[in-house]
Amino acid sequence: MWMVQMNVGGCSAQVRGILFDKDGTLLQFISLWGWWAETVLSGLERELKKEGGELPEQPGYILGVYIEENGSVRKHDRQGPLAMGSPSQMIGIATYLLYKEGVPWNEAVQRVTEVFDYANEQVLDRANIVPISGVVPFLERCRELDLPMAVVTADDKRPSEQHLEKMGIRQYFAAVIGDDCVEHGKPYPDMVELACRELGLQPHEVAVIGDSVGDMEMGHSAGSALQVFIDEERQFDAKPAKADVMIRAYDEIELTL
Question: Residues 60-68: contacts with CB within 8 Å, 24+ apart?
């Protein structure tokens, strides 16, 4: 397997593979998770009302999203739980709300899990999942160069594959690694190490592309060749710590043999 020269933003590295985060890196984050967050918060509100409670004054903080006056979710905190946390971590945060109202923890977990499961089941049909600009041509270029690719996501494996299939890009990836595939999720190196084993590569032979600090820390801790931070939404003025370079779009990356 040959090396491919990756040039981006004044940085360069020779790589044999590329690992991609999913949400905010392959697909526009809110196009999937906006409706999902609205549904989860609505479900949590119903459960809390059964106990005579209510959502906090700023309920978006539970998931790390910003709620508009009309109740819709159009933005998220790139350093919040929805952006970087695992499904089980978010369930834990929401479960505490019911526990505070006197619901036994085991019952609270069950009720919150049902809220999350409903949102997960409905989101594929209700959400309009939109790819990040330029991602498909970039994936095609990688395939032309026989560059193996994998997804490393804080989401679980099964729903992640469903999201990729709905966008029509699952076939580009030799592996999909979810939070439920490893002992330690982001920012630990486990996902990179597992993805590399499945691709038959070493961490120092791959680049990591992601849109969160957790992605960059994960790649850096694994010793990957290059950490590329993508910020299509232009929320960052400068690249975050552990990122080697920041881009706004995929056409800023040049791949050559």
Answer: 62/93, 62/94, 62/97, 63/37, 63/90, 63/93, 65/33, 65/34, 65/37, 67/41
Asked if 81 contacts 64 with a C-beta cutoff of 8 angstroms, the reply is yes
- Distance, in Å, from the CA atom of 19 to the CA atom of 153, rounded to the nearest integer, reads 10
**C-alpha to C-alpha distance for 223 and 97, rounded to whole angstroms:** 39
Q: Across residues 100-123, what is the average pLDDT?
A: 96
The confidence score (pLDDT) of residue 1 equals 66
Work out whether the CA dihedral 129, 133, 136, 139 comes out positive or negative.
negative
pLDDT of 125 higher than 90: no
pLDDT digits (tens, 9 = 90+) for 4-17: 999 999 999 999 99
Q: Read off φ and ψ for residue 230, nearest 5 degrees.
A: -105, 130
In angstroms, rounded to a whole number, what is the distance separating the alpha carbons of residues 210 and 200?
A: 21
Cross-strand pairs, 210? 229
Considering only CA atoms, which of 208, 223, 254 is closest in space to residue 7? 254
What is the three-class DSSP state of 239?
coil
Q: Say if residues 150 and 19 touch (Cβ distance below 8 Å).
A: yes
Mean pLDDT to the nearest integer, 175-198: 97
Q: How much is the pTM? A: 0.91
H or E element: which one contains 176?
Answer: strand 175-177
Handedness of CA 9, 13, 16, 19 (dihedral sign): negative
